[in-house]
Every structure is written in structure tokens, then in C-alpha cells.
Amino acid sequence: METKIWKVDNFVDNSENYPQIVDAAALLRDGELVAFPTETVYGLGANALNGEAVTNIYRAKGRPSDNPLIVHIGDMNQLNGLVEVIPELAHPLMAHFWPGPLTLIFKKKEGVFPDSVTAGLATVGIRMPDHQVALRLIRESGCPVAAPSANLSGKPSPTTADHVYEDLSGRIAGIVDAGATGVGLESAVLDITGEVPLILRPGGVTIEQLQAVIGHVEVDKGLLKGEEAPKAPGMKYKHYAPKAPLTLVDGSPAFLQSLVDEKRAAGLRVGVYTVEEHKDLYEADNILAGGTLKDLRTVAENMYGVLRQFDHEGPDIIYGEAFPHTGIGEAIMNRLLKAAGGRVIKEG
Ligand code: AMP
Ligand code: MG
Predict the structure, then answer these.
(1) What stretch(es) of the chain map to CATH 3.90.870.10?
(2) Which of 87, 223, 272, 290 supports an S-S bond with 306, CB 3.0-4.6 Å?
(3) What's the sign of the alpha-carbon dihedral 104, 108, 113, 115?
(4) What is the pLDDT of residues 59-86, one digit of tens each?
(5) Which ligand is nearest to the CA of 201?
(6) Spatial contact of 146 and 3, defined as CB atoms under 8 Å apart
(7) SS3 of 1, please?
(8) In CATH terms, is domain 246-346 a member of 3.90.1150.10?
(9) Per the confidence metrics, is the pTM higher than 0.90?
(10) Among 38, 54, 105, 304, residue to substitute to test ligand 1 (most atoms within 8 Å of Cβ)
(11) Is 299 left (phi over 0), alpha (psi -120 to 50) or beta?
């Protein structure tokens, strides 16, 4: 299959026509797979009401079938037809964070979604993306859109249309290309079906931001210690990994350099994943910096692109700096620890 590319401005003007979006939306409605930009990462969309289309998402990505998909909506009214109840707590959350990088888990309305969307669960994850092109596409398609990240399962998520093309060309009908995404990592997933709201995945909306609006929130214990299985099925899988094994280093640049020196002395090509202010401190085969410690959001924005770049540079192993767990740092570390398969070396 030839994968179409539709180029669109990052900010669409609502008074204008966009034949590219109309074309992409028609294919989406008819059951084809269409990748599109959101404010987090590029998503791989399918009509969420079409079981065969949704099954094709799993096939195109090589995604395990027990990992449910997030359903994207284009306006608030769409929610009523999809969920059993909208809990009280949902209202302030939607008012503050939608459109935006927060997925809410609701009890699903029976008989609406094919099993492939929810992986057979009684709940469904829903969000409204904060991206003009995504919203326009969803509204134009007239259907809720199931969309995981538009990458091959296991690889870093795509933050540009080129990343999507690299992974999925020939496997999907098309890609709406509106340039680089903003946040750079996925939405936070918050379960609001129980007594206490529970974070199943840290993400674009931070824990601190959630607390400021609804007070107490808990974090799924399965994320913290790895003793219990995580409640979001997707959190148990290896994810986001570059080809060369990544190890995180919790310590000073001098300590990280000593690890690099040891491996280079043994004949390995060593990559270093760092930030702008540290990049000149290292001597290694590939030194890639993404963002600044002064603003961790810039690290999030660049993280997946840098991890993918290592695949092109081809080191044998990669050492990466660890980040503080504050604010968006929590989501950054959640993703990096997965990319590193949990490998961390602590100084001292
Ligand atoms: P992705 O589509 O790759 O961004 O992953 C979506 C994440 O949301 C995965 O970790 C899923 O396991 C999780 N998720 C989606 N729907 C549900 C649900 N109904 N209950 C719990 N977790 C969910
Ligand atoms: Mg993903």
C-alpha cells in the first residue's frame, strides 16, 4: 500500500477549507488507518466504531492485543454517547485540561466499542487532543478516533511525520504532516472510575497540576515498585527503546564519563544522551543533547527524537543522564526507565 502524505499548517484556520483534511477524514471514516499530529506525539488513528479498522492498528504496529487504545474525541458532546456515566470529578478535570494531554478512564457504554478498542475491559480511555489539525480531522471524520502512538511497538514514539514514515510507510493509508508535536511525550492516564483518582501513567499533564485542581490523587503502585502488575496494561511492556541498549546514570557528568571511558577502552562505540548545558563535558562517539535542565519541558519535547537519532548514528551502547522526578520529569523518567529496560547506575 502506498502511504499518502498530506501536508497541513500546524495551526489551521477554522474559516478555511482543507481538502487534505477532508480527504484524510474520509479514509479514516471508511476504515483506513491515518496517522495525525497531536500536541503529545503523532497518533495512528482508526474509526473507533469499526472493529476491523481497530484490529488493523494492532497489526500495523505489532502491538500486543491486550493493550487497550485511547479514544480521541473532537468535542465535549461526543463523550455522552461513549461512556456509561460521567463522574462528578470528571467535570473540573475536563474544564481544566481538555483539550489537552490528559486521558480519563471511564466506564464504557455497553455495545458501542468493538472489543479491540478496550482489549475487552469494562472501561475506556478518552481524551480530547489540544491540536487544531487533530481536532479538525476528528470532527470532519464524524467518528471517535482510536489512536495509539504511530510507531512500531517497542520503538520511541514519533514526534514528527518523518518518524511515522520511517516506521509505518507501506502499512497505513496516510499521514497528516503538520510538523513537530509540542509536549513530546504521551498523555497522563487518570482512572476516575474508583473512590480515589488514580494515575495509571504519568504524562503531559503533571501530578502537581492534577492535585491543584482535584486535590488528592494516588499513583498506581504498579508503576512505583514493580512489585504489583501495573493497572494500565500497556505499562508492563518494553517501550520507547533505541536499538543500542540504553543505561541511565544517576550521578555527575564526571561519573558518567568514567563509565564511557571504561567501555571505549574495551573497544565499544559509546553514545551519550545529555542536555545542552552538559554536552561539551563529554568525550564519546555520539553525543546527543535534547533540551535544557532549566526547563524539563524542552527535554520532553526532544527526548524521542534524540532516542531515534541514536539508531541512525549506531553506537554499541548508550549512557543517558537521569532527570529529577519533579513536574514533567516524572513522565520523562517513566519513559526513559522503560527505554532503558530499568537499567540505572547510581554514583557512589
Ligand atoms: P498508547 O496508546 O501507546 O499511548 O498507550 C495507551 C495507554 O493507556 C496504555 O498504557 C494503555 O494500557 C492505557 N489504557 C488505555 N485504555 C485503558 C483502560 N481502559 N484502562 C487502563 N488503561 C488503559
Ligand atoms: Mg505508544
Answers:
(1) 4-224
(2) 290
(3) positive
(4) 999 988 889 999 999 999 999 999 999 9
(5) 1
(6) no
(7) coil
(8) no
(9) yes
(10) 105
(11) alpha
